[in-house]
Amino acid sequence: MTTLTTPPTAGPRSTGAASPRRTSKPRPTVTAVVTWIMAGLFGAFLLAVLASVIVASLGGSWGAGWLPGSVTSDWFRQAWEAPGLSSSLAVTFQVAVADVLLALVIGVPAGYVLARKSFPGRSAIMLFALFPVILPPLTYAVQLAALMYRLGIGGTLLSVILVNLVPILPLVILITVPFVEQISPQVEDAARVFGANNLKLFTRVLVPLLTPGIVAAGVLCLVRVLGSFELTFFVSSAETQTLVVTIFGAMADPGGPPAALTAAMTVFYMAIALIGLAISLRFSNPAQALSGSAHRAV
């Protein structure tokens, strides 16, 4: 008679693996706490400034308090219909489009050459390209204005375009160089093997790959031109003022338009600048490219 024996139930085996340990949350350091506090204070201050401008542009009547007694959107209509604002908007659009196109057409090929070619003085050129970007525009605005008037084009639209091209052209170069360096040279060699000349190589191969950098550089140039006050102020006339110069003139004139009307004009300016910045951050991180380029130049 065969006896069936039931195998013993296997107990918990030791696999040698360590049992999961409870990970304690890292305690915030003093540096992290101070950083978050400072960032929060800065963000709150920035939002307070923006909110104050928006509230001032909507105020119909004011009393003794912080908030207006009545709210109206009529100031935006008056700002839009103001002759000075409409003409300055047209000038701003012309200057911005012309400067961005010129900066991209000149800066992108120049950035490609600096990224791919090694020649004496390359590091010096990269270093000098940083100066118009990091220096305050007032340090060279007066000299550029004097040069424009000596050439006989001071006060014209051409002079406004040329002086605003000075800080944004190096910006395009500095942003383009890291993007080009991220592209393997083997991609260009393969395109040449298949018969692509220099023009087709640049337009059909490199430009699609450089699109994030080109878009970021173009939008940053647009934002820089929109905010350029000193360079435009010294060379523009009454017919060639950009929006930021027109707003400054309205705020500096004691007998000028009401404060609410000036605030409505400022809201238009802030909206244009914020839209451009949002588009730039959507496509790429130009600040990282600029910092990398600056590190290579030094």
TrEMBL record:
Q: Does the record's keyword annotation contain Kinase?
A: no
Q: What Pfam families does its record include?
A: BPD_transp_1
> PROSITE patterns given for it?
ABC_TM1
Q: Where are the transmembrane segments?
A: 30-58, 93-115, 127-151, 157-180, 201-226, 259-281
UniProt superkingdom: Bacteria
Q: Which CDD domains match?
A: TM_PBP2 (cd06261)
Q: Segment Disordered: which positions?
A: 1-26
**UniProt entry keywords in alphabetical sequence:** Cell inner membrane, Cell membrane, Membrane, Transmembrane, Transmembrane helix, Transport
Q: Which residue numbers delimit the ABC transmembrane type-1 domain? A: 89-280
Q: Does the keyword ATP-binding apply?
A: no
Membrane-topology descriptor:
Multi-pass membrane protein
Per its UniProt record, what InterPro entries does this chain match? Answer: MetI-like, MetI-like_sf
Location(s) in or outside the cell: Cell inner membrane; Cell membrane
Q: Which family does it belong to?
A: Belongs to the binding-protein-dependent transport system permease family.
What name appears for this protein in its UniProt entry?
A: ABC transporter permease subunit
